[in-house]
Amino acid sequence: MRNILIFGAGRSASSLIRYLLSKSNEEKLHLTVADLSLNLAKAKTQDHPNATPLALDIFNADERKKAIENASIVISMLPAHLHIEIAKDCLEFKKHLVTASYISDAMQALNEEAIKNNLIFMNEIGLDPGIDHMSAMKVIDEIRSKGGKMLLFESFCGGLVAPESDNNLWNYKFTWAPRNVVLAGQGGAAKFIQEGTYKYIPYSALFRRTEFLEVEGYGKFEAYSNRDSLKYRSVYGLDDILTLYRGTIRRVGYSRAWNMFVQLGMTDDSYILEGSENMSYRQFINSFLPYHPTDSVEIKTRLILKIDQDDIMWDKLLELDLFNPNKKVNLPNATPAQILEKILTDSWALEPEDKDMIVMYHKFGYELNGEKKQIDSKMVCIGEDQTYTAMAKTVGLPVAIATLLILNGKITTPGVQLPIKKEVYEPILKELEEYGVIFNEQNVPYFGYNPDLF
């Protein structure tokens, strides 16, 4: 039996583990699922004869090294900052490594040694990053193979709630890490290139500069810009492209509503609110409003946000129970962002019967034989239930498929990498279609932008 060691049995690991266990007899696999919580590891392995749940503290170097030494290949589904020590151990014991996380500088620094030891350190092989890279490179490579020149690439992705579970005014629920949602867009201006001109959107304006998208059968969506759309320009071989933009998908109206929190200062994570533990929800929002001897918190909120009582934006705030004087924050030494996350989790948690949805949308503009053309590629994936979510499927399945391809010698290029080579993306995208992760590509009129470059 070939031993696959998986670090982390959280939500993203469910579909990954199920896939590998379904292949375990024919592929002669044994899974060791290591997590700080033995119960979590047991829940994911479900007493399968080809799986061993293991209680393991990642900071216990001896335990970690022993587990890695006994593995044929290692998967890390832990938070990104915890990958590096695992990666160093993989170098020591000559083991391949697969993660779904962005390549950090520390991970990239191991590239030369990984190549020297003929080791594959596959990263960014989840959803976003991951499926976005693979589906984009497939079409870009096809355009280039015909002699086309890329002019425009726009890529959008969002984790949303499925239409049948979409029952609040925000058209949104937390389908993944709430903290990442609250802090989205912070840390510098969003930057991209449009018709050859660099564009920048400060955080204060991010949620008021959106693009609109239409997905057949699912209606209209909007997207706000990711922080750094230029990060993959060289990686994709798009250094000369005129337009490059990456964004996050939400339902129409979400961004305008979210902008209220930004303008009030409720998404700030840089300071602590005194007395937060005993603060009510009403006191929390009032702490961002000016003092007035007679105006209520509600009136002050509407005045500062310039919204009327019959505005849907006001209804969205009311739906969150933000003005409740009896609900307590119960978080000591909390930042505004942490308190907002707590409040939103009350309203946006997925119910037991809820399903999530992933939407991905690419636009490829190119020139071929003097004619400008465009391909739009769209993918929608609906989750099964609270365990096998669309997010778990789209993050975990590419990791699992890549792991098996590496084990079976189908992926051979060594080094620290992301899945942009044909040997990686072609078989993975093909197999993902069997699990309902299907991209529909359409030839559409070239969109382009205003030729005056402004």
TrEMBL record:
GO terms for cellular component: cytoplasm. Residues 4-120 form the Saccharopine dehydrogenase NADP binding domain. Residues 126-437 form the Saccharopine dehydrogenase-like C-terminal domain. Keywords: Oxidoreductase. It comes from the Bacteria. InterPro entries: AASS, NAD(P)-bd_dom_sf, Sacchrp_dh-like_C, Sacchrp_dh_NADP-bd. GO terms for molecular function: saccharopine dehydrogenase activity. GO terms for biological process: lysine biosynthetic process via aminoadipic acid. This is Saccharopine dehydrogenase. It comes from Flavobacterium anhuiense.
